[in-house]
């Protein structure tokens, strides 16, 4: 007679769970990689190659065939076939073993970049998708929209100049605004500035920045800068980053020092029995989410306090204009206050 062993059952359960994770992990699971290999068409591969070459050239880096094959999730044969087609069509050329864009290829690449960044802006302003999903979803959509659909999307969004990460969006003629600022590690101790760009690649570093809840548009002051860490103050909180992570933040130094009040902080830091006035809403809150907060009464000058603390951590209820409003911590972190 067999007896039930709970440890064995748990091991089987976690083994199956791990297998399913590796098979169906969004965009990077074995199933999706295999599906991508089988369904990828010539146009998709060509556009991905052009975009990669554009990003390399824009960062003053060089790329050869070996590097390109390593970066793209297509078979070697498909990439080589695409390179041959692109060469014949005067989109790229070889300088020794280095791949480079022709003017025609660069114009094509800019059109793909335009679609990608417009779609990220759309996802940020018009949908509820988490920011970690924006890039992959835009990667998929950039190959689908035609010229008229892209122009309609741009018009619908008000012809924005920047995507939600602070990257400039090319116009339909290929012109782009300049990103103002320098990498955070280049700022001296005591320097003040505003975050103008957050690089979303590589993904592992971007996830660290998201975990720290650092917001684009935030005012910062550097208090420590050395080879091991960068420490800065922003919105009532202290942030500590490794230099390699901090380098993904672009900060526009302020031309003149401004007074930063010590008690200006995020609503998420408010505790019971404290009251505060709303200073504003972070640029990190966009589109429908921003309008919803304003409609709920979180406007400049409004008095706010905690009405109910959730014993499980979140959401908490805030009393604003006589109404109790429940907010998650990530929502409250985008509302700036001055404590009384």
TrEMBL record:
It comes from Aestuariibaculum suncheonense. GO terms for molecular function: DNA-binding transcription factor activity; protein dimerization activity; transition metal ion binding. Keywords: Iron, Membrane, Transmembrane, Transmembrane helix. This is Metal-dependent transcriptional regulator. Residues 182-253, 265-339 form the Ferrous iron transporter FeoA-like domain. The chain crosses the membrane at residues 6-24. PANTHER family: IRON (METAL) DEPENDENT REPRESSOR, DTXR FAMILY, IRON-DEPENDENT TRANSCRIPTIONAL REGULATOR. It holds the Pfam family FeoA. Gene3D superfamilies: 2.30.30.90, Winged helix-like DNA-binding domain superfamily/Winged helix DNA-binding domain (1.10.10.10).
């Amino acid at each position: 007679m067999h007896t039930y062993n709970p440890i064995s059952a748990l091991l089987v359960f976690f083994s199956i769970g791990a297998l399913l994770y590796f098979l169906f992990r969004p965009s990077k699971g074995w199933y999706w990689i295999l599906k991508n290999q089988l369904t990828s068409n010539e146009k998709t591969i060509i556009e991905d190659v052009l975009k990669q070459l554009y990003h390399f050239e824009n960062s003053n880096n060089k790329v050869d065939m070996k590097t390109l094959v390593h970066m793209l999730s297509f078979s070697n044969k498909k990439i080589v076939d695409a390179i041959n087609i692109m060469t014949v069509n005067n989109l790229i050329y070889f300088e020794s073993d280095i791949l480079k864009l022709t003017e025609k290829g660069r114009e094509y690449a800019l059109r793909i970049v335009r679609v990608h960044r417009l779609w990220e802006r759309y996802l940020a302003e018009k949908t509820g998708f988490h920011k970690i999903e924006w890039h992959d979803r835009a990667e998929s959509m950039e190959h689908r929209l035609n010229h008229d659909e892209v122009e309609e999307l741009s018009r619908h969004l008000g012809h924005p100049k920047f995507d939600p990460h602070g990257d400039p969006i090319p116009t339909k003629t290929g012109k782009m605004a300049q990103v103002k600022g320098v990498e955070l590690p280049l700022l001296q101790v005591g320097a003040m500035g505003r975050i103008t760009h957050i690089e979303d690649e590589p993904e592992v570093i971007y996830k660290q920045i998201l975990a720290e809840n650092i917001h684009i548009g935030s005012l910062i002051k550097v208090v420590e800068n050395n080879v091991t860490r960068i420490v800065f103050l922003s919105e009532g909180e202290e942030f500590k980053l490794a230099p390699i992570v901090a380098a993904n933040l672009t900060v526009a130094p302020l031309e003149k020092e401004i007074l930063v009040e010590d008690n200006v902080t995020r609503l998420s830091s408010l505790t019971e029995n404290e009251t505060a006035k709303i200073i504003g809403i972070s640029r990190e809150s966009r589109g429908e989410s921003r309008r919803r907060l304003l409609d709920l009464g979180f406007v400049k000058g409004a008095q706010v306090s905690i009405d109910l603390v959730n014993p499980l951590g979140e959401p908490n209820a805030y009393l604003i204009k006589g109404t109790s409003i429940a907010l998650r911590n990530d929502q409250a972190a985008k509302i700036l206050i001055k404590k009384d």
